[in-house]
């Protein structure tokens, strides 16, 4: 492909993306394809001879689009947002096009210096303590990671390393233990697996928040058993209900115990760009590392996960090895040693694009608007007696159909099967709830009403006709007496098998 | 930014990239900026109000470009290639524009199914054993990772997990040990740090290749000391000299000892697309995991690292945790559990673009062409009596100025300071050598001649006038008797301080 063809192909693809977003409301958010749909659409091996880009772009439309879940549809309300903005997309295009990586400063001064500055821009915009910034006098600093999972793992590794270094005892690594709440993201438990440190999942209070007393008691118990606490992962904005751990209480305990505190604010961290929410990170001065994902709620396309260390020497101690091609950098900080990979893409460029083209005001407007839309949805739920709101925070509302879990299960099934909106289930306080999140930046009040009408329609057509029939050892729920969904497992984890059958409920108690 | 502005901004950026490549020979490959150059070019905080995209794109040219190292300049001969191709750039644009991530199949059927198929396309193109493929009947399979560093770490984790599971003994994890060669990439040693497993750096033979006998002896010694070998990381294409470990010998030892074998073929793996090089991976059937980076030598823009497992159940055992939003996938394989992050970008799309638009023949032509260019450069070095070739393999030639290391050091300094071509130093068999790699896909014979003339010019102007003056305890090397570069450290690791001074050599022995 020569440069002229690239110009044509690139511009045709820009147009393709533009028209994709122009028409995004016309496509169902959930794909209707069956598992294995792609198998017969593609040859089994790489074609011997190259094909024309026209054919490839046609196939994106013909083969890929039907199997796509539309994460930026205004009707996508699952998980948390994954960022997408026009400045972010063009930033990704340019950084990929220029294709300049970096290792140390010498291998790409612009990439390293822009990343350092962007991390300071972000840190100041969130109101993080100055000691986390690259420009501070001390050893603090920030860097872009691939994902929050990786940041949590690195935070835990640093805590592990610092603890081992501080102990004279042999065999201390087999006695290490770390803590988080049972409401934390599964990636925190995974970080424990990766770092070979048992991760205790502590109970929360009634609001889903980990409290200082609970942590203190767990640490005390472990220490009495001869174990060595090395890290606490606190969450600001849990995946399930967007709850905030009590950072001030937890931080005080970590400070007193000399335990590393990593803060996972993957989704909700972006909200601190709005000063009225900063009270929720009270105690952040106790954090040793802090992470949030601009690629979630701050309009920077994935991947872009921002991580700060209060003392980057801990990261170096945990991660630095002598590189094969030794050329010590003349530039400080030498951020290549604060991450897993050897080199880094020029992701700072897309942060720069987004922050300049939106400005602080644009970012704040985006966040406040999504929170307002969530409150609007919440009001719709609250005024309907058939539902109850179980939790609500930031861009998320958790609600359920009153009564048995199975009604909510049937609602989720029905909505999912129709594919007009995308919702996710969650178990909260031992009840099944629906998570409804404002994800797409295209979502407007009209889309919230669209979603609400869809939910009510499925409720009235599929949930309400259900009747619970109790027999000796099982209760059977019938939908108009005709269709039955088998729910073999009381935790309802086999829902996705269910939606491929006719609607039919049998509940084994 | 509305959709019309996005169309303009996107297309202007496509044109910017096109004209960047049209003019790439006019720009020096190494930036001339001083450390900290960006500091005063950018405000200290995010601008309050958004700016126009025109201004931002202007600033890319004004602020970023001068500080960029041009990794795709035909005069970039450092490290190994980082891939960049027009189909790859447009693939990245589209995957970023559509912005669809995936977790399990349900969250994005197209993304999961295309990734599975692309990994099979790649595996078949390289001639990997069938049992590694997703489409095979057994438990093997492949998935895209972020980086080879991550793949090595995951391979080691799997070996660790499998070994622990197979041992009845308590406390086995503190006795684990892993092996690689001293020529392996520093990321292998880092993987040992990440996984808390000591990584032995074993000596190689005269060709930089790790042999079975050496490994066998090391394992025997460790086992006699009560340690438990869990993993070997073999390299196909070392960073220093692109040497190939003897996989057949190593694999036989691993097989007999029941030790996990991970193969790191980050750069050179791509060469197996050309059948005439497959003898270099003889023994690959012994591998438990195998990794190469399409984002190095196979034209797929970073990031895109391909990793296969012979038995993916090992990856699941090492990495799988119960996710917060439980919905077991109806689709097999459930590749979300074979990686660190929770979700994945739609990177398969750019592999698809590159492989279709190049075809097998296009990829082979690219690789063979770069190898031929390296041999052409090698011939230029070989016919010049002032130089010696120390190693040569694939797209890499290692050479040095005959005599004391300091001559090669002055050569590297001089070339680096002029910034016309980018070379890197390496220590091989205790001698300083220059690594010269064919990196850019734009590099042609004329660029090789350009590089050679540059090397000879610096040799004649700066290296040859040097004389070694021996006094009692030091030897002094003078460049025309006028300029002196201080070399304080016999390993010459402070070269980058040197190049900012006048050329002047003092060698303390």
Automatic annotation (TrEMBL), chains A, B:
CDD domains: DOPA_deC_like. It comes from the Eukaryota. The modification N6-(pyridoxal phosphate)lysine is found at residue 296. One of its GO terms (cellular component) is cytoplasm. SUPFAM superfamilies: PLP-dependent transferases. Keywords: Lyase, Pyridoxal phosphate. GO terms for molecular function: aromatic-L-amino-acid decarboxylase activity; pyridoxal phosphate binding. Gene3D superfamilies: Aspartate Aminotransferase, domain 1, dopa decarboxylase, N-terminal domain, Type I PLP-dependent aspartate aminotransferase-like (Major domain). Belongs to the group II decarboxylase family. This is Aromatic-L-amino-acid decarboxylase. It comes from Exocentrus adspersus.
